[in-house]
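Subject: complex prediction, re-run

Hi both,

The earlier run crashed halfway through, so I resubmitted it with identical inputs.
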Amino acid sequence: MEQRNEMGDLFREAFKDFERKPSPKVWYNIENTIKSPYYQKFNFSKPMNIIIGSAIIVSILVILYLVQPNKQQGNTQPQIKNIEVEGNKKQNKITNEENTVVSSPKIINKSQKAANIIPNNDLKTNIPKVNITIRQNIKDLIAQADNDQIIYENQKKQNSANTATLTKTNAAIINKSNNDNQNIIKNNTIISKNNPVTEISFSPDQTICKGDKIKLSVNGGVSYLWSTGEKTQYILVNPTSSIDYSVIATDENGIRKTGLISVTVSNCNAPYIPNAFSPNYDGQSDIFKVYANDISKFEIVIVSRSGQVVYTSKNINDGWDGNMKGKQAPEGVYLYTIKYTNELNKEQITTGHVTLIR
Amino acid sequence: MISEAEIISGCVKGDKRAQKALYDKYSAKMFGVCIRYFRSRDEAEDALQEGFIKIFNSIDKFRNEGSFDGWIRRIIVNTALNYYKSNLKHYYSVDYQEIEENVEDTKLNFDNFSVEFLLSIIQSLPEGYRLIFNLYEIEGYNHKEIGEMLGISINTSKSQLMKSKIQLQKKLNKKNI
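This time it finished cleanly. Structure:
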């Protein structure tokens, strides 16, 4: 009992002041998601909003209109064909030959936007069907998983007793569970043919940040040989670029299993530079700025495509609001050059482009 | 330096600088919490992001009853748990009634374990064990609270904690890197 408390203490102490910097992108995502009390969600004085608003209303009306005729069809499984109708004229035909429903024209021209919002006119018939299938699948999966677990538990008990005697019923269960593993039963003792008796499994593929260490492990087995040459059950690695590690694990019966674990290394600490912004004061991506951890001597220069400097700054917390000399800069692509000193005290220069959207 | 009270009142008003100050002050600490609950960094970052959005959107509900730090941590931990909510039933569906295995009687040599290694073995625990071990041993919740948070019985919480410790013990004994 005392020992267990010791273990709790060990972990509690180790993680008391444990810190880890998240990637710069996390703050970008948060900043552009949180609600600002000063931000009005829908400003109907803007022409763009009127268009979007009316498009939504039209689309709702169209959906209602399209869904209605199918309701009358009861349980029949209708086959639906599209008919394209020019202009604003709407057409809706229902023919009852062989339970076929022809309905729901696509609307072209003025209300094209609304028509685009509706993915397809078989909305009504398809969606519930998909749901049912998904539910069924989940059920099956759980049933499957439960089943496996029960069998696994059974196996484990027998293994721990080391060549346990089996009753016929137990043997039947195990055989049934291992259709493709073909266990051999000799003198009431179970010996695995293809698969080690103790299951050997490997760490899943991992994604880490440059500089992070990661532990790779094998579950089960008694001896190991890693591609790094190490012979332990766990290895601690800190690759600087993406790499695959392989390991050969051997179980108590001398049966081998080879595992391959891919480790993807990404530069999490690299500055996050958005590729577009929309200075319309809606609280979301109104300002173009660089998101970074632990950098110094920051400098940014933004130029238009004609080479005119539109913004410069030496403060990473400032950003460009899309104005130049007090006037709104036009929509389009702008080029930036960013200079900074990174956490390893190395000077970095990054260039790229950002799209201004109004 | 902005004081904590200024940060809070600034955030209530939606002041961007206060929000950034709060994030800068707590993000690394809270990411250190999040990362114990997930195997991958990506999942931990998603939970951190969602947790902070909740913090900013509900900061006006913070009453100075407990510590601000504790309030933030609770939101982060609950957000992390939410990621597992839909699967929780499954994790704890097997009723472990007694623990047959015994913890081997070896002394732990504390100096041998780096925090990186300890993190990696927490992350390698099965989800069910990992949640309870984190909640009980590191966050310091009791079994009753954990039972309520995860929707499981006090006894399940207790037996799962035991199981998780046995697994950790095995991993610690096996290899001191």
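The mean pLDDT of chain B is 85.

- K.
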